[in-house]
Design a protein that fits this description.
8 helices; mainly alpha
């Protein structure tokens, strides 16, 4: 079979999808193509052999695509049938579901009502049981109130229906449990009351003993505090006397010069004289008056002598300071002039250096642009060998001047 005879190995139009796409339904197709391949021979070294291989490959590919399309078409048809089957099945199911609900609803309503009735009775039973819940501690009065409520529930005429026997047993057991619990709690409360009275009596005795002890301790403390106050008065009196003597001694000391006053400034000597005079004029030296007078006179005499020396020395120092100040001022002027000259020279040198650097940069940029332009012209010559050098330069100039839209050159 040649390529002109057929473009496939299998007659796909003659196939029935329902027979092919079942377990082993396609085996005949596979066997047919396998037999064709098994009997196929071609010389790969010749043009005819290579064409034969290509032809057989195309036939197998054509059969593959045809059979796969038949499969997808058949699958779509089967899916459409399945959708119709499912839709009708769902409609039937929903209808029967509605019938089921309709017939069962009265029974469901009865079950719901019965559950509510039983739940209500169970809740009443639980409420009665809770009266005998001893997990929470209650006193006898609270338990008696619960007992009274349980007895009342036994005679309230409530319709327990089919829970009547259970309710009666629950109420009776609760009443018995409450009575037993009340007896136990009342006995415990009685014992607790007696114990509390004993504790109160003991506390009262201890309080009286403590009060008597505190009274005695208070009296002893008062006597000790009085004695301490008297001792404190004596100590204060002695301290006051010592302070008086210390103050006189300090004033006398303040009028005494510390190891002479040689080298003091005139201002410091004036302040010292004023201070000594102020201290002495205030007085209060009592029995130390003679000593204070001698100290005052010695100190003032020495300060007056040193004051004369200090004023002469300070006049000489002031003259020397003024002379030095004039010399420093002239030196500062000379230094400022020298600095200004040096700065002007440095500025001129910096300006000349900057101008040289800018000129060098312009030359470098010019040389760089020339290299880039020459490289661009060389490239244009390769792309447009028939264009003259003058035209190429004109084109490059137009690009540089941005006269050609969307075209630029990078330097």
């Amino acid at each position: 079979m040649t390529e002109t005879e057929s473009k496939s190995l299998v007659n796909i139009e003659a196939l029935n999808p329902a027979e092919v796409f079942v377990p082993n339904g396609g085996q005949k197709i596979i066997d047919t193509i396998a037999a064709e391949i098994k009997g196929f021979e071609a010389d790969i070294k010749t043009e005819e052999g290579r064409k034969a291989i290509i032809s057989l490959d195309r036939k197998i590919a054509s059969d593959k695509r045809g059979i796969d399309k038949m499969r997808t078409d058949f699958t779509a048809k089967v899916r459409a049938q399945l959708d119709e089957i499912n839709a009708e099945g769902k409609r039937i199911f929903n209808s029967l579901e509605d019938f089921q609900k309709e017939i069962y609803q009265p029974l469901q309503d009865w079950k719901d009502a019965e559950k509510r009735r039983v739940d209500a009775l169970e809740e009443n039973i639980s409420e009665i049981k809770s009266l005998a819940d001893f997990t929470v501690e209650r006193d006898s009065e609270q338990l008696k109130a619960a007992l009274a409520e349980a007895i009342a529930r036994s005679n309230d005429g409530f319709n327990w229906e089919d829970f009547a026997d259970r309710a009666k047993e629950t109420i009776e057991s609760v009443i018995i449990a409450l009575k037993d619990k009340i007896s136990v709690v009342e006995q415990r409360e009685k014992e607790q009351a007696e114990l509390e009275q004993l504790r109160k009596d003991k506390a009262d005795r201890e309080a009286a003993d403590r009060a008597e002890q505190l009274r005695k301790e208070g009296e002893a403390r008062a006597k000790e505090e009085q004695a301490e106050r008297e001792r404190e008065l004596e100590r204060q009196k002695a301290a006051n006397e010592q302070n008086r003597i210390n103050m006189i001694t300090t004033k006398n000391k303040d009028m005494t010069l510390p190891e002479g006053c040689t080298g003091w400034s005139s201002l410091r000597i004036e302040a010292a004289l004023k201070s000594i005079e102020t201290i002495y004029e205030r007085g209060g030296f009592d029995e130390f008056a003679e000593t204070a007078k001698a100290t005052y006179e010695n100190s003032t005499d020495l300060l007056v002598k040193e004051y004369k020396v200090a004023t002469a020395r300070e006049a000489q120092e002031e003259q020397e300071r003024k002379e030095k100040e004039e010399a420093d001022k002239q030196a500062a002027i000379d230094a400022a002039a020298a600095k200004a000259t040096a700065e002007a020279k440095a500025e001129q040198e910096r300006k000349e250096k900057k101008e040289k650097e800018e000129a060098d940069a312009r030359e470098k940029d010019k040389a760089h642009r020339a290299r880039v332009n020459n490289a661009a012209i060389d490239a244009l010559k390769i792309s447009a060998p028939n264009v003259s050098d003058e035209d190429l330069k004109a084109i490059l100039k137009a690009i540089v001047l941005k006269q050609i839209p969307n075209v630029s050159i990078q330097y």
